[in-house]
Every structure is written in structure tokens, then in C-alpha cells.
């Protein structure tokens, strides 16, 4: 008989494995940089959204000494605007993911543990959401419920849970099948206790790895929604910057300084979460460990 | 036969999902703020007779249940309402646009599947090598790129600075259409296709790779090696065919992804397809057009899902013998 894994004692080990993998380290460093820039950047270089151009020449102008990354279509400083935009992208990504992960884990846990009518109904529901085209769904929800910060977080959060539910469910099922659960139950443990003490600790690591990947997806969703003109108009995010850049014809006019900074911001933060999540998955998912 | 039974079951599931989507759509657009008749009339004042006749025409004077049945009948017969912006039947507009989207998606999908699967096989067959590592990292990076931004960058680099390809539309202005402008179409389709393919390829590489890596550790691979087959024979006769099964089931997921990608790419490149139509409908709040586009894109994804289930049933020997 092999000893049951004790995931919590592996926490420290997992972190050091994450740091010792080149991909994981790159991901963590990228996240550190973006976090630092997002918090400290706007304090050091505050962005004034209300300033506007005093002459036509200062609109969509190339980088120079006073504007390190040029100006946007209103003559505002792109460098400061980009620093400011990090915050919305990060906050939306994290909050939406919290919602997705909570719903997804709960549905996955229940569907995996109670495999009767309730479980199969929940899986049908999950499959239904998986079968919907995500971007069109998110677009119509945002159109109907309006373009506010809260609506965007809710819409992305409420549509992003199915993958988490599937992962949680399959892990719960694999734990449930193990012999020791049967033994614990015969000793009189309640469902609640079995879930809390034996099932959850085995499911949580996979959910942690999944969380990082879901954040990456949520940030991409926010950027895409905002690019399509469905962002919160009162707040600057990288996606809304790109929307206004696109509408102002920045691409056709070759205004690379307006398109590159917010785009690279999105790529770096999404890549940071993707690399971290990918590596954590390799470490924490026993089936993937040897690959 | 058992297999026929399974196909019918899958068909029933697909139809049920479609019905659920239609119900969802009905409910969603009925919670819209404002009175649908006023929304439809949009501007100006309507006489009370005009309102009453419109309500009657759209069945809005009937109870909700009857309205729902009417709605289902209209959807089945292709009566999807009148677009606010184009003042034409939504179904006609969609019919014109969907062809352009399908041309784009078909081309991108062929490239994604061919290159993605080839790269995945290459990575898995050299697991742990430098090539494998590079392919995995590249896939993760491509996966992290926002589709619309890749499009914008290609516009600047290949379109504006190098002037290699047209950056907007499907045909040059003044083009007569027909077979003569095929070359023109080919030049216009390059950038949108590259954009779609680049971003959606990563996932295919990773799925093919992990599936093949799984298969290559199976006992029957060891058996194949033991009976003296070469590395290449083992890979192509026993490895790849089995590894492609999970790839087929992820096709549905891919279709959902690529439909979203089409909206972004068509927006950036003004490609006159369904995606650009949706973007314009979003900006103008053209609800009937949005509602129908969502229903159609859901139907496409559900149909792709159903097809991949059927293909799986037909080629998986384990299912065949069950």
C-alpha cells in the first residue's frame, strides 16, 4: 500500500520547484514586474486623463523628450496612460477569476461527490456553457447589462468557470475512488468531514494551478471586450486604449508608439500568468509530473 | 445497431442544447431595458395605432409563453427580425456575410490543423529536446497573444511599413468580383489568416503533443518496438493515429475559440463577414442583429461539437466494438 499524498506539506517544495523551473521563474518575474509597475508606476508618473492637446501637432505625435512614448489621439501621454491602464486589467482579471474559481470549484466538488441526478445535472450545465461560443456570449451580456466595471467583472467571472468545474470534478472522482475514503466512511465520518479533510486538500493544488491560467484568460477577455468598445468608458485599461487607438486609425497611420505599449502590457501579464500556471500544473498534477 | 443509437443520442443532445440556447437568447433579450416596440421604432413618435399594430405584428400583445413559441417558430423559419441599422431582414444580411467568414475560417483552420499537428508530433517525438522546449514555449507565447493586437501589429509591420499586403477589406475598391479577382482576394486574405492561425495554433500544438506523449508511454508502443518496427513506423502507425483521437474532441473547443477570433480579426481588417457585422452591431446597439448573430454562432459551435462526436464514434475502434 502506498502512502496517501499530503499536498499541504508539499507547498514549500512546490514553490521551490516552481522557482527552479526556467518557465516558472520567467512567469514569476514577469508577474513581479507588472505588479510593481501597476502599483508604483502611477504614483511616480501620475496620468492626467483630462489634459488635452493644445495644438494639432501634439496629437498622435511621435515619442520625444517630453512624451517618452508619444501621445494619443487626444494629445495625452501614452507612457503615463499605459502605467495607469495596468491597474484595471489586473483588478478585473483577478476579481473575475475569483468568481469563476468559486463557482467552478463548488460545481465541480458537488458534481464529483454526488454522482446521482444532481451531479449529472451540474455536468450538463457545465457542458452547456462549454458549448457556447465564449466571446459572442460575453459580448451580448456586456451589451445588455451595460458597460460598467462591475458588469464586466461579473460577465467574465460568470462565463469563465466551466473548465475549472471539469478539472475539480475529475480530481474529486479520482480521490473518491481511493480505498481510504471507504474506510474513513465506515468509521462514521460524515460527507462534510470527508470533503473537508480528505477531498479538498487533494483538489486545491490543481485549482491553484488552474487559477493562474484562468486569470490569464480573464485578462485577455477584458482586453478583448474593451477593444471591441465594451470597456468601462470612465476608466483607462489597456484594452480601451487599444480601442481608441484603433478607432483613431493608429494602425493605418503607423502610430506604433500608441499600439505597442498597451499591447505588450497585455502580452507580458498574460504570459506571466500562463507560464506560472503551466509550470504549477506540471508540478501539482501528478499525471503530468513526469512529462 | 449500437453505433446508430449513439449517433441519435448525440443528435438529440445537440438539438436540446440548441433549444436551450434559443431559450436563453429569448430570455436575455426580453430583460433588455426599454420597450421593444419603442426600441424597434427607434426615433420619432409613434401613434398609438402604429404601436398596437407593431405589437400585433411581433406578437408582443400575447402572453409570454405564446411569445416564446412564436419566437421558436420564427427562428426555425429564419425570420430573425429587422436590423435597426440596415433596415433589412437580419437573415438576408447574415446570409451574405457568413460566406466571407467561412472562407476565412476554413483557410485558417486548415493551416492551424496542419501546422499545429505537425509541430505537436515533432515536439512529442523528441520529448525533452531543445526543439520540444522551443515549440512548447512558442505555443505558450502565441496562446498569450490577444488576437486583435496581433492583427494591429501585422497591419503596421507588413501593411504600412513594408506595404506587402492590403490591410483592409476583402477586395480592392473597383474590383469587379467573380473569378477574375481571385488574386486580389488572395492578397487580402493573407494578413487576417496569419493572425488567426498564429494565435490559435498554440493550443493545437500543446494538445497534440501531450496526447502523443501519453500514447507513446502505452504498452502497445513497447510491443510495437519489440516486434522490430523502426522508430518512424512506431510513431506514424501506432502513435499518431491513436493520439489524434483526443485532438478531434478538442476541435469543438477550437471552433468556439476561432469564432471569437474571427470577430477580432474581421474588426481589425474590415473583413466583411459576420464578425465585423457583430462589431458594428455592438457599436450601434443593433439588438436584432446581435441576437441573431449570437444564435448563429452558437449553432455553428454546437454543430461542430456534434460533428466531432460523430467522427470520434466512427473512428474509435473501442467505441466501434462496444
Write the layout of secondary structure elements.
The complex is a heterodimer of chains A (291) and B (322).
Chain A: H1 11-20, H2 22-44, H3 78-113, H4 117-130, H5 134-145, H6 149-159, H7 162-176, H8 179-186, H9 191-230, H10 238-247, H11 256-284
Helix pairs in contact in A: 1-2, 2-3, 2-11, 3-4, 3-6, 3-7, 3-9, 3-11, 4-7, 5-6, 6-9, 7-9, 9-10, 9-11, 10-11
Chain B: H1 2-30, H2 36-41, H3 48-57, H4 64-76, H5 90-125, H6 130-143, H7 147-161, H8 182-216, H9 219-226, H10 231-249, H11 251-269, H12 274-284, H13 287-315, H14 317-321
Description:
- The complex is a heterodimer of chains A (291) and B (322).
- With 291 residues, chain A is an all-alpha fold.
- In chain A, 71% of the residues lie in helices and 0% in strands.
- Chain A has one domain: MetI-like fold, CATH 1.10.3720.10.
- Chain B has a domain at 97-285: MetI-like fold (Orthogonal Bundle), CATH 1.10.3720.
- Chains A and B meet through helix 4, helix 5, helix 9, helix 10 and helix 11 of A and helix 1, helix 6, helix 7, helix 11 and helix 12 of B.
Attribute tags:
heterodimer, B: mainly alpha, MetI-like fold, 14 helices, 77% helix
> What kind of assembly state do the chains in view correspond to?
heterodimer
Q: Helix proportion of residues of chain A, in percent?
A: over 70%
CATH class of the domain at 97-285 in chain B: Mainly Alpha
SS element count, helices of chain B? 14
Largest interface: A-B, 45 and 56 residues
What is the CATH superfamily label of the domain at 97-285 in chain B?
MetI-like
What is the overall shape of chain B?
A: globular
| Helix content estimate of chain B | over 70%
Summarize the biggest pleated sheet of chain A: none
Rg on CA atoms of chain A, Å:
23 Å
Number of strands of chain B: 0
CATH level-1 class of chain A: Mainly Alpha
Distance between the amino and carboxyl termini of chain B: 11 Å
Amino acid at each position: 500500500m502506498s502512502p496517501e499524498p499530503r499536498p499541504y506539506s508539499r507547498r514549500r517544495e512546490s514553490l521551490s520547484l516552481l522557482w527552479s523551473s526556467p518557465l516558472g521563474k520567467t512567469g514569476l518575474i514577469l508577474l513581479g514586474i507588472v505588479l510593481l509597475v501597476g502599483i508604483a508606476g502611477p504614483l511616480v508618473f501620475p496620468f492626467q486623463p483630462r489634459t488635452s492637446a493644445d495644438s494639432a501637432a501634439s496629437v498622435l505625435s511621435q515619442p520625444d523628450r517630453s512624451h517618452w512614448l508619444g501621445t494619443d489621439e487626444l494629445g495625452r501621454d501614452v507612457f503615463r496612460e499605459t502605467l495607469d491602464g495596468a491597474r484595471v486589467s489586473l483588478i478585473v482579471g483577478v476579481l473575475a477569476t475569483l468568481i469563476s474559481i468559486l463557482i467552478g470549484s463548488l460545481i465541480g466538488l458537488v458534481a464529483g461527490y454526488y454522482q446521482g441526478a444532481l451531479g449529472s445535472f451540474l455536468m450538463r450545465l457545465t457542458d452547456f456553457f462549454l458549448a457556447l461560443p465564449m466571446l459572442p456570449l460575453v459580448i451580448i451580456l456586456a451589451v445588455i447589462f451595460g458597460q460598467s466595471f462591475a458588469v464586466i467583472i461579473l460577465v467574465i467571472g460568470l462565463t469563465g468557470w466551466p473548465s475549472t468545474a471539469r478539472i475539480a470534478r475529475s480530481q474529486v472522482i479520482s480521490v473518491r475512488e481511493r480505498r481510504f475514503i471507504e474506510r474513513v466512511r465506515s468509521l462514521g465520518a460524515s460527507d462534510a468531514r470527508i470533503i473537508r479533510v480528505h477531498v479538498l486538500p487533494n483538489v486545491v493544488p490543481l485549482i491553484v494551478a488552474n487559477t493562474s491560467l484562468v486569470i490569464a484568460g480573464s485578462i485577455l477577455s477584458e482586453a478583448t471586450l474593451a477593444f471591441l468598445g465594451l470597456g468601462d468608458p470612465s476608466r483607462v485599461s489597456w484594452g480601451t486604449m487599444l480601442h481608441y487607438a484603433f478607432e483613431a486609425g493608429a494602425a493605418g497611420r503607423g502610430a506604433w508608439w500608441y499600439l505597442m505599449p498597451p499591447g505588450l502590457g497585455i502580452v507580458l501579464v498574460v504570459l506571466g500568468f500562463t507560464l506560472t500556471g503551466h509550470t504549477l500544473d506540471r508540478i501539482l498534477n501528478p499525471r503530468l509530473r513526469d512529462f | 445497431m449500437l453505433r446508430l443509437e449513439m449517433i441519435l443520442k448525440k443528435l438529440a443532445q445537440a438539438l436540446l442544447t440548441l433549444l436551450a440556447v434559443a431559450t436563453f437568447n429569448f430570455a436575455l433579450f426580453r430583460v433588455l431595458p426599454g420597450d421593444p416596440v419603442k426600441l424597434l421604432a427607434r426615433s420619432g413618435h409613434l401613434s398609438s395605432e402604429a404601436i398596437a399594430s407593431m405589437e400585433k405584428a411581433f406578437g408582443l400583445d400575447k402572453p409570454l409563453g405564446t411569445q416564446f413559441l412564436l419566437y421558436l417558430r420564427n427562428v426555425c423559419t429564419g425570420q430573425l427580425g429587422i436590423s435597426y441599422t440596415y433596415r433589412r431582414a437580419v437573415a438576408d444580411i447574415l446570409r451574405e456575410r457568413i460566406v466571407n467568414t467561412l472562407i476565412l475560417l476554413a483557410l485558417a483552420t486548415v493551416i492551424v490543423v496542419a501546422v499545429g499537428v505537425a509541430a505537436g508530433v515533432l515536439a512529442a517525438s523528441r520529448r525533452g529536446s531543445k526543439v520540444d522546449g522551443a515549440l512548447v514555449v512558442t505555443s505558450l507565447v502565441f496562446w498569450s497573444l490577444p488576437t486583435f493586437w496581433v492583427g494591429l501589429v501585422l497591419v503596421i509591420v507588413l501593411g504600412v511599413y513594408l506595404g506587402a499586403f492590403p490591410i483592409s477589406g476583402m477586395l480592392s475598391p473597383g474590383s469587379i468580383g467573380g473569378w477574375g479577382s481571385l488574386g486580389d482576394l488572395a492578397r487580402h486574405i493573407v494578413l487576417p489568416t496569419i493572425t488567426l492561425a498564429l494565435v490559435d495554433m498554440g493550443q493545437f500544438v500543446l494538445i497534440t503533443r501531450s496526447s502523443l506523449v501519453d500514447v507513446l508511454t502505452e504498452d502497445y508502443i513497447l510491443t510495437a518496438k519489440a516486434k522490430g518496427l523502426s522508430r518512424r513506423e512506431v510513431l506514424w502507425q501506432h502513435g499518431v493515429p491513436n493520439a489524434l483521437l483526443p485532438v478531434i474532441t478538442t476541435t469543438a473547443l477550437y471552433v468556439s475559440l476561432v469564432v471569437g477570433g474571427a470577430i477580432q480579426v474581421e474588426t481589425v481588417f474590415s473583413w466583411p463577414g459576420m464578425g465585423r457585422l457583430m462589431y458594428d452591431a455592438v457599436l450601434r446597439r443593433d439588438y436584432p442583429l446581435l441576437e441573431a448573430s449570437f444564435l448563429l454562432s452558437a449553432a455553428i459551435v454546437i454543430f461542430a461539437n456534434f460533428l466531432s462526436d460523430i467522427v470520434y464514434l466512427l473512428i474509435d475502434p473501442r467505441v466501434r466494438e462496444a
